[in-house]
Design a protein that fits this description.
With 984 residues, the chain is mainly β. It folds into five domains: 21-278, Beta-galactosidase, Chain A, domain 5, CATH 2.70.98; 288-570, TIM Barrel (Alpha-Beta Barrel); 597-676, Immunoglobulin-like (Sandwich); 683-822, Jelly Rolls; 824-984, Galactose-binding domain-like (Jelly Rolls, Sandwich), CATH 2.60.120.260.
Length: 984
């Protein structure tokens, strides 16, 4: 016998160049049994030898040779295995290790239906011999052989390159070459032509390294020669039981295998049958069942202290979208819900809300009222980078030598392992969950770069708290991620990181996730923005994308895929999509519901019709409308459903005559759209003129609401003297700010007064182009004009509005707002800004109008000593000169950074003024400007790390203003505070 073993070992070396395990002499156990499977298992080790389908007798193999080695903490240890008692459906094993005294692993193999589970049921270790990671190389829980009739391997790596598939789908034959090393993948299926198998595991690598990268070593496979045959075996990757540095342990290791015959009734058994069965064992992402109904992603965007999309403004936008789409599901991703907006004060997920956007109170109003409009909300958070103004920031949280993104402020890399082990990150997210009363259920995890345990543990902790996960890149937190930005925003970022490019993964998860590259048949969700993200402000384009791209995509996500080819995809619920003579068509059963680009798609209890070219088309009524004698047809607009038109059916079909690019909804019975209550929670009636008229306002003179080319509703004032106003009630005593966007026709003059109670802010012109990228008015001359007033004791109302003198210059108004906030301090003839107030914007300043419409690098900086101040980690200046707030700038283009405009700080021609301010500058590349129209007088500002006071006087010209320039393209920090204007 010993000689026979030597010969067999020599043959194995000759065939493969490596020593392969040799079959044990121990007899196999009688096996495990379910109604569907007989499973032969080993006596020597918890291994599966084979699976036999009890109905057909077909066999799929596991590992038929002995195994005794386990990797513990990355090192191989030989196990001594003792068999426990065996039930019909379960076999147990106890593994001990001579070289690891005190370490015992209890494991089992069990069968239920068509699922076989390998599980580690208990691990005992000692202080001297701790079990950190566990791996069983060559475990071969499933395998196929070249001698199987139609052996096939289907493996998917997570690859984001739009031009490169991560799939390997290949036949296994006797001639298949041996792999010199195991091959990793995230998903793997095998089939023989008679049976198919898929495997799932809770594998996680402790260390963020090449093996854990993109989860592409979650499973291993290897082709090996066995005599004249080839075997391909598949086993689980590493499990982490106790992460490095952690005091607690992780869930015990397991791997599950599902064995299946034909699942899609196509008389063949291949990887697609395995994929269908895989859904019974695969990780189910939290909230994945809602993905199919989230038709409309959009990004309300706040940035750099501007608060261009306050929370209650976003509530009106949610209502507007809902009316225009007859209540389709929305996913609103709030970028900039905290601190000064997007990419400020990470990782303060709670307790540091964006007060200029309305703070926690308005955020909760948005979440509570918004869900009534079929909207789920998420917030943009960061667990990778931290900014010094964050309350959580410390030298314990970050590595101060590892600098990360730097736009408004320099960020630093978080020690994510420590953050998890300490429980700090969990506490911060839990507080956000509590603060938002359970109404906020989604997180967008930005720039996440971790794989392995730090990713897996974070994912599980967030899941436990009830969060649903979305990400910037599709390969991060892959098990849980429901939506990824780059996969949906196809004009953002590079195509090498676009989205998961895998037919295998899309097959199994198409109905759960929006993380894939776009498909000619299955299409894919897209985001086209109108709320300022990446400068996008085109609301008609936003709606066009909803109906041209997203609704058909979501219709195809209503049910899991059962069969897929390049020309056709079939779903469980009987729908399909086909490529026919170069035309994409979708079917409900045998009926065409989408033809090329026009459609009548059944949706819940109604149907949507859309025809980009317009005209009359005839459709079969399907879904809830099937068999109806007549239907109600509504044209959709910003105001919801138009007047109903009754259309009779003939032979179960209707003919619809549509306007080009206009959406329609069809119902069985008449019904009106819900009432919007524009301005809910703000105390203002219809502050954005979304009603399409001035019914919420009182008008004297001439004014009307017009929809501009961006789809924005604006109040347009005619040539007569006009006042647009409303009485605000329910006020409590205190200080307030009313503001509204105003544009006087560029190049012309007309007197405008924004008023509240007895206070007025006046302007005659709009000289500066708005370059705030997050503002829907960017690249126009609209500027937000505030007026500050006080409600005295005993009063609870105030009249607010805009007065416009007679004139031929067109005046436009939009987006009024009322907040509790103080204005500049007024002391006689002196007005002072210390930037401690809670108003949106930058006090008396607006952007200089010379830059491209990109995200500014200037904002109000918040003090968090010592980290925001001179001296910490080599900082050259104080971010905050005095008090808690200053203006901070670090622009990297030569340009006029900030300047005053009429209405914010008006200079009367011919009058003399004294200007005083303090500044600090890291470099001598800023200059103070005194302007008169396009003429400028420049005063260079020297570099200084201490506060320096500048005082000077000037006489105002016809168009006087002041501000500061950045004089070259070298970014350097600059802080400004205590700005004063005194009329002499």
């Amino acid at each position: 016998m010993e000689g026979e073993l030597v010969l067999r070992k020599a043959l194995a070396i000759a065939l493969t160049g490596a020593l392969l395990p040799v079959a044990a002499t121990a007899a196999p156990t009688p096996g495990l049994h379910s109604a569907d499977l007989d499973v032969q298992v080993g006596t020597d080790f918890p291994r599966v030898i084979s699976y036999t389908d009890r109905r057909t007798g077909a066999v799929l193999h596991g590992r038929d040779t002995a195994l005794d080695t386990v990797l513990i903490n990355g090192k191989p240890y030989k196990a001594t295995t003792a068999r426990g008692q065996q039930r019909t459906d379960k076999a147990t094993y106890t593994l001990t290790f001579a070289d690891l005294p005190g370490v015992t692993i209890n494991a089992s193999l069990s069968v239920a239906g068509r699922v076989v589970t390998f599980a580690v049921d208990k691990i005992e270790d000692t202080a001297q011999n701790r079990v950190g990671t566990l791996e069983i190389p060559n475990h071969d829980l499933i395998s196929v052989r070249g001698s199987d009739p139609s052996a096939q391997i289907a493996a998917a790596k997570i690859d984001l390159d739009a031009a490169k598939s991560g799939d390997t789908i290949a036949k296994v034959t006797k001639d298949t070459p041996a792999d010199t090393a195991p091959q990793g993948s995230a998903y793997t299926m095998l089939s023989t032509g008679k049976l198919a198998a898929a495997i799932e595991t809770n594998s996680v690598y402790d260390i963020n390294d090449a093996k854990s990268y993109r989860d592409n070593s979650r499973l291993w496979r290897q082709a090996r020669k066995s005599g004249e045959d080839t075997q391909v075996g598949v086993w689980s990757g590493q499990w982490t039981y106790r992460a490095a540095g952690a005091a607690d342990t992780e869930p015990l290791p397991w791997a599950k295998v599902v064995i299946t015959p034909d699942t899609n009734k196509d008389s063949t058994v291949d990887w697609q049958d395995a994929a269908n069965a895989f859904r019974t064992i695969m990780w189910q992402p939290q909230g994945g069942e809602h993905t199919k109904d989230r038709v409309i992603p959009h990004i309300p965007y706040n940035f750099a202290s501007q608060a261009t999309h306050p929370f209650l403004r976003t509530l009106d936008d949610v209502k507007r979208i809902s009316l225009a789409t007859d209540g389709l599901g929305q996913f609103a991703l709030l970028k900039g819900f905290a601190s000064e907006g997007h990419d400020s004060a990470h990782p303060d997920y709670a307790g540091h809300y964006n007060e200029r956007a309305g703070g926690l109170a308005d955020l909760n109003t948005l979440l509570d009222k918004g869900k009534q409009w079929n909207t789920d909300f998420g917030v943009h958070v960061n667990v990778t980078e931290s900014y010094p103004e964050a309350k959580a920031f410390s030298e314990k949280l970050v590595d101060k030598n590892n600098k990360q993104w730097n736009w408004l402020d320099q960020s630093y890399r978080i020690d994510q392992r420590r953050d998890l082990i300490s429980g700090d990150v969990q506490k911060r997210f839990e507080q956000l969950r509590k603060d938002t009363k359970g109404n906020l259920n989604m997180l967008y995890i930005d720039v996440f770069r971790e794989f392995g345990w730090t990713a897996d543990r974070l994912m599980r902790e967030l899941r436990k708290q009830g969060w649903q996960i979305t990400t910037e890149w599709a390969h991060n937190l892959e098990r849980e991620a429901l939506w990824s930005h780059w996969a949906n925003d196809i004009d953002y970022g590079g195509n090498n990181f676009r989205g998961i490019n895998s037919s295998i993964i899309r097959f199994v998860r198409n109905d759960q996730k929006d993380v894939f590259v776009h498909s000619p048949l299955l299409m894919g969700g897209r985001i086209v923005e109108f709320e300022g993200w990446t400068n996008e402000v085109d609301y008609p384009a936003f709606l066009k994308n909803v109906f041209e791209q997203n609704l058909p995509t979501k219709w195809l996500q209503q049910s899991p895929i059962t069969k897929m080819s390049a020309a056709e995809v079939n779903m469980q619920n009987g729908i399909s999509v086909k490529q026919e003579n170069g035309v994409r068509r979708m079917y409900a059963g045998q009926d065409v519901v989408y033809d090329g680009d026009k459609y009548l798609l059944p949706w819940q209890d109604k149907a949507y019709h859309f025809n980009p070219k317009g005209g009359a088309t005839t459709w079969k009524l399907t879904g809830a409308l099937e068999g109806a004698r007549s239907v109600q047809v509504y044209e959709l607009s910003d105001q919801g459903r138009g007047k109903p038109v009754t259309v009779q059916s003939s032979g179960g079909k209707v003919t619809l005559d549509a306007k080009a690019g206009v959406p329609y909804v069809l119902t069985l019975k008449p019904g009106e759209s819900p009432k919007a209550n524009w301005g809910e929670g703000t105390k203002l009636k219809d502050p954005g003129f979304y009603a399409g008229d001035l019914s919420g306002w009182t008008v004297t003179g001439s004014a009307s609401v017009a929809r501009n080319e961006r789809g924005q509703q604006e109040a347009v004032v005619g040539s007569a003297e006009t006042m647009v106003s409303q009485e605000v009630t329910g006020l409590t005593p205190g200080e307030y700010t009313v503001s509204i966007q105003v544009e006087v026709e560029p190049g012309k003059s007309r007197h405008v007064e924004v008023f509240a109670a007895d206070k007025v802010s006046a302007l005659d012109s709009s000289p500066v182009v708005n370059k705030v990228a997050a503002d829907e008015k960017h690249d126009t001359h609209f500027q937000r004009i505030p007026v500050h007033f006080t409600v005295p004791n005993g009063q609870s109302s105030a009249k607010i509005g805009v007065k416009v003198a007679a004139g031929d210059a067109t005046v436009k108004l939009d987006d009024a707002r009322l907040v509790r906030a103080v204005g500049p301090k007024v002391d006689g003839a002196t007005r002072s800004w210390d930037f401690e107030d809670g108003n949106q914007g930058l006090g008396p300043f607006v952007g200089g109008g010379e830059n491209a419409s990109t995200d500014a690098r200037t904002h109000r900086s918040e003090k968090h000593a010592p980290y925001t101040q001179r001296g910490w980690n080599g900082k050259a200046i104080d971010d905050v000169i005095d008090g808690q707030w200053s203006i901070k700038s670090q622009e990297d283009d030569a340009m006029l950074v900030l300047r005053t405009v009429p209405g914010l700080q008006t200079f009367t021609p011919g009058k003399k003024y004294r200007i005083t301010f303090q500044y600090e500058a890291a470099a001598a590349n800023h200059a103070w400007i005194t302007g008169n129209g396009v003429k400028e007088e420049s005063q260079p500002l020297a570099a200084t790390g201490d506060p320096k006071t500048v005082t000077y006087e000037f006489t105002a010209g016809d168009d006087a203003w002041v501000g500061f320039r950045h004089t070259n393209d070298q970014a350097a920090e600059f802080a400004l505070d205590n700005f004063q204007v005194t009329e002499l």
